Amino acid sequence: MNVVMIGAGYVGLVSGACFAEFGANVTCLDVDQKKIDALERGKIPIYEPGLEDLVKRNVEAGRLRFSTHFQDWIGDADLIFIAVGTPTRRGDGHADLKYVYAAATQVAEYLAGYTLIVDKSTVPVGTAREVKRLIAQTNPEADFDIASNPEFLREGSAINDFMRPDRVVLGVETARAEALLRELYRPLYLIEAPFLITDLESAEITKYAANAFLATKISFINEVAQLCEKTGADVSAVARGMGLDGRIGKKFLHAGPGYGGSCFPKDTQAMIRMAQDVGASSRIVEAVVAANAAQKELMVVKILDALGGSVADKTIAVLGLTFKPETDDMRDAPSLTIVPALIDHGARIKAHDPHGMDEAARELPDVVEYADSIDDAVKDADAIVLMTEWNQYRGLDLGKLKTLMRGDVFVDLRNVYEKQWMQEHGLDYTCVGR
Q1: How confident is the model at residue 120 (pLDDT cuts 50, 70, 90)?
Q2: What is the rounded radius of gyration, in angstroms, for the C-alpha atoms of the chain?
Q3: pLDDT score recorded for residue 255
Q4: Per-residue model confidence (pLDDT) at position 91
Q5: Residues near 260 by Cβ (< 8 Å), separated by ≥ 6?
Q6: By the 8 A CB rule, do 362 and 329 touch?
Q7: pTM for the full model?
Q8: Is 28 a catalytic residue?
Q9: Backbone angles phi, psi at 185, to 5 degrees
Q10: Of the residues 18, 28, 228, 263, which is catalytic?
Q11: Which of 5, 13, 58, 424 has the fewest CB within 10 Å, making it most exposed?
Q12: DSSP β-bridge partners for residue 351
């Protein structure tokens, strides 16, 4: 099968490489010439475990290629996936669909023979029908169907999520479109992955509803953590007790500095706007967004309190900058709120992250210093703030760190360590909800 991915970003690149691994003939198209040039040299623009090897293997096998020339590849495609960004639109919180609609219009010009156009991007309800209208308007002779196939890829484990998914959601209008997608995804049928075949609108809303619910679990446990701190309870024990209930489940019940990343912040905002547009209630999701913003601000207060109420002229070593481990993604990371606030209060920041420092340098104030190693970051620091739970930070040599530091404050925003153990190493330990 000839598959074209419009967009060689996170979703397009991962999905394209995985479809090539399934045996499809895949071309990733993008308007960014520098990105395509880099990919053709074997340079992957994002950090995702296993992706570099997957891309290299399928390029060498002749099943995966990259191009900016839409006219060379669209006409021969059996399926075309639109996998471009849908960021929050500045000013109103809606998903910005300009890249989706631009891709649809550009694709329409070169269609030849029956083609299935698939929305892979996260898009509000009604987008697939608008894409269909735009293509028919641009090329009235085009023979095509439209489908919605939202992605459910977690950064840091995207390849496994694609190859062994919890579910595959296919929103289709015709039996022909369904058959084509089933054939493309046939390797997943062989491992009995669950498939949901539904209509366009249900597929579009499923993605938003899933992300909003997961964000709700995070904000909920963070508010429970505040209650635990006020009453002397342990949020980790409470979360375990909740998670043992099969109706609730243990995932996404980890107290911390709030959610971030490329999906939850923009998707919760977009879901609120979708509901407002049609006159539906979104009070729970609105509360989730507000609680998440408040949690990040609360972490600033927690750090200030741990240092006696002031960080002025104090050196703080920040371990971890990305919104989660195993990614270089800085989008809406808690560090983007917390670090500038500490700087505003007079702190000097020395930061370390295994893969996120280049991206962080583009997002954080210029005064942030970046360390090549954990030791360099904590040397002469008055406090350590563990911001992201990379594996490198889960087994720190606490005795060594204590000798390198000037102070003794350790603020663990991910509850990686136990208070007794930290105290035994002479560290003044602060965590979340315990």
Answers
A1: very high
A2: 23
A3: 97
A4: 78
A5: 323, 324, 331, 332, 333, 334, 336
A6: no
A7: 0.93
A8: no
A9: -90, 15
A10: 263
A11: 424
A12: 318, 370
